[in-house]
Each structure stands twice: as C-alpha cells, then as structure tokens.
Write a structure and sequence with these properties.
By secondary structure, this protein is of the alpha+beta class. The protein has 5 helices and 10 strands. Helix 2 (81-90) packs parallel to helix 3 (110-128). The radius of gyration is 23 Å and the shape is elongated. The two termini are 23 Å apart.
C-alpha cells in the first residue's frame, strides 16, 4: 500500500477575472514557499493594482497546510477572505496564496453576493491551475558497476514510473550511483525487485524522508 498523498500545490501562477454587476474581481493565485513569499506576492498585486478598492487575501502554507490566514481588506467581515480560504481548504491545496482584487462597479452586492463572488473567483482560478501532487518519499541510493549502469538505468527508471517513485539522478564516479525517491511502503518491494534484477549482487542504501512534487 502506498502512503497517502499530502495536500497538493499549484505548478505556476494563474489569473482569472470575474465580473458581477459591473464589479471586476481579479483573482491571482501563486505557489509560495512560506508566509514571507506570500506577503511579497500580495505587495506586488497591491502595487500593480494601486487604484483598486480591495485586495482580499487567503493563504495556506506548510507541508500539512498548517498555516492559514485571510483578510477582508475593508469588505464586510466574513464576506471575502474566509470564503476564499474555505475554497483553498476544500480543494486540498497548500503553499498557495490567493489575492482577489476588486474594482467596484457601483452596485452593492450584499453579503451573500460578495461571498459568492470572492469564492467563485478563487474556485475558477483553481480550475485553470495545474495541480501538483505531493507525497513523502524515502531517498535510496544504488551503486552500480559502470558495465551494468546502462541496463540498470532502464530497470530503475521503469520501476520508478510503475511505482510512483522518482529517479532523482545518477552520478558517475568510481561506480555509477543512482538516487531514487521511493514511497516508504514500497521500500521492501524495491529491495526485492532490485535483488531479483541483479541476482542479489546489488543492494540499496536508505536515506532520509522528504516531501516531493510528483508531477513537475
């Protein structure tokens, strides 16, 4: 059984515009590594759209989505930031900041209309984004004689592809050293398959666990 996936993130920034009763809602979503990077994204949006009335924000960061913030930026309390944050939570993403800039169109939307507009802007932007799956993987290394490196490269690449792992690189020194990222629940299977492919001549050395993006 493969270990469960962690919350996803997005591969690249994405923008989406929503118009509701002449008000323009400009949603900007960006992948971020931490709160400081998210704050920098918000500052850049504020500078770009300096003439807008509101810049409402929701962010989720951390491997397990453990840091979350939102702000209504002058909209009635609970009508912007929190609905935006609920979309991010519901969609299971992390390391993402969402900024929705509003240009007021002259027609009051009411609390319900604002909630729908801000949440829809974020939801539609997420629909446009390419999600990146994340999971915990264990780093393993395999030292291979140069004469066997070509054949083992294909074997290890096929194994990683089949078992949702990552062939993370190969270094050619005294021997060829292959580095793979393997799901913790698949480590014993990897050892057995490696032994079978090399008639027991090679063994993997296990290293640390890390969070990896599986789809980049």
């Amino acid at each position: 059984m493969t270990a469960p996936l962690l919350p996803s993130t997005i591969a690249a920034p994405v923008d989406r515009e929503l118009v509701v009763k002449r008000s323009r809602f400009l949603a900007h979503l960006a992948p971020v590594a931490d709160v400081a990077e998210a704050d920098a994204v918000v500052a850049a949006i504020r500078k770009e759209h300096w003439d807008a009335r509101h810049h409402c924000v929701a962010l989720v960061v951390g491997t397990h989505a453990d840091q979350q913030r939102s702000t209504d930026d002058g909209e009635p309390s609970g009508t912007a930031g929190v609905p935006m944050l609920e979309v991010l939570r519901h969609r299971g993403v992390t390391d993402v900041v969402a900024v929705v800039t509003r240009y007021f169109g002259g027609v009051l939307l009411g609390a319900g209309g604002l909630v729908r507009a801000y949440s829809s802007a974020v939801s539609e932007a997420l629909d446009d984004a390419r999600l990146v799956r994340r999971a915990v993987r264990t780093r393993v290394t395999v030292d291979v004689p140069h004469a066997d490196a070509g054949r083992l490269h294909g074997v290890l690449q096929d194994w990683a592809t089949t078992h949702d792992g990552v062939l993370d690189g190969v270094a050619y020194e005294a021997q060829a050293r292959f580095t793979l990222l393997v799901a913790p629940d698949d480590l014993d299977r990897f050892d057995a398959d490696l032994a079978a492919a090399t008639s027991g001549a090679l063994a993997a050395v296990r290293g640390d666990d890390r969070v990896v993006d599986l789809d980049r």
